[in-house]
Amino acid sequence: MEIRGKTALVTGAAGCVGGRLAERLAADEGMRVRALVRDPAKARRLGKTDGIEVVRGDVTRPDSLRPAVAGCQLVFHAAARVGDWGTRTEFYEANVRGTENVLEAALAAGLERFVHISSIAVYGIEAGPGTDEFSPHRPCGDNYIDTKIEAERLAFEYYRGRGLPLTVIQPSSIYGPHAGIWTVRPVELMRTHRMALIGGGRGLCPPVYIDNLVDGIVLATRHDQAVGEAFIITDGLSVTWKEFFGFYARMMGRGSFLSFPKSLAWLAALVVEAGARLTGWRPTFTRTTIRTLTLRSTYDITKARERLGYVPRLSLEEGMRRTEAWLREEGYLPRQAASRK
Fold first, then answer.
1. In 3D, which of 208, 11, 29, 215 has the Cα closest to residue 114?
2. How far is the C-alpha of 29 from the C-alpha of 229, rounded, in Å?
3. Rg of the chain over CA atoms, in angstroms?
């Protein structure tokens, strides 16, 4: 599928994935991009790229979606509520109802392609080694995971039952510029001395640098055989969380981390969650955090390699080098010479 010269709507464009994707589509792929955001003030960086029109809208408000989609040939749905804390209603409205609203608007517009950004989280918190696109989806009671499963199922219903040309992308743990959960948050926790490992940090992290992820999304969009398919996109490797967070520690000139046994951390999370419910504060960590950081799952990208020709372009070391440069530029780290890896 040729995408140059076409018009695309990108939802969630104020976020890490939507924003970087919008920049790539406009700057490198020659597309006209409508970047859907709830607050244009949070998407000022997109104004630096020719070909991007920032439009105000909200996936939970169908009336704001119809004019945004009108005239588009493609929709990239990256908007979602992420994280390990929040009510079922909050996650459902954003991730399921919001996805349904975008699907309806897209169907009415007669698109050439709808690309839904899902997550490897659909395989559950107990995913096993070698998880691939044929592995079962596992609801587990976590609001984020369960609503991402529902949203992906809904998207496939629109493909199978209503003819929407759908492609699903399932990213792993996204890091890099503007990545909140796996870049900004750990750095902020380290700065305030609230960062610790669980079980020695031996759980496995399946990283994906944001530019590698965007490469995968663009490749899937170009391939007609990607319609009706889901693709896991990672950097093609797994490292321990101790190794992954160690990159950030070295950027900050820090040494080793404190580590707590999983059993002790689990009890602490119960107390922290109870306190968060009483106070309304966001907990520093939850039981979902602990399960994520002790899981030893691996994810197979053979399907993306063979069908899309996807090869992770940037190594973990190079991705972290670029991430460090951005963290210093944005003031999360002191402006100084980049650390030596």
1. 11
2. 22
3. 20
Pairing, β 204-205 against β 7-11: unpaired
List, in order, residues 6 or more apart from 153 with CB less than 8 Å away: 137
Model pLDDT, residue 94:
97
- Name the H helices within 43-109: 62-69, 88-91, 98-109
Domain 7-179+206-235+298-314, CATH 3.40.50.720 — does that match?
A: yes
**How do 52-56 and 239-240 pair as beta strands?**
unpaired
Domain range summary for the chain, segments of one domain joined by + = 7-179+206-235+298-314
Map tokens 């520690």 to a residue: 249
CA distance 111 to 120: 26
Alpha-carbon dihedral angle through residues 175, 151, 170, 44, given to the nearest 10 degrees: -40
What 3-state DSSP class applies to 219? helix
| Residue whose entry in the numeric block shows the structure tokens 């689990």 | 266
Express each pLDDT in 227-246 by its tens digit: 999 999 999 999 999 999 99
Q: CB neighbours (10 Å) of residue 97?
A: 18
Query: Any idea which residue has 């990672």 for tokens?
Result: 234
Contact between 20 and 210 under an 8 Å Cβ cutoff? The reply is yes
| Residue 17 CA: distances (Å) to CA of 100, 200, 210, 254, 262 | 20, 30, 7, 29, 31
Beta bridge partners of 115: 76, 167
Note the pTM of the prediction, 2 decimals. Answer: 0.95
Q: To 5 degrees, how large is the angle CA 27–CA 166–CA 64?
A: 70
Q: Are 101 and 59 in contact (CB under 8 A)?
A: yes
- Tens digit of pLDDT for each residue in 319-341? 999 999 999 999 999 887 555 55
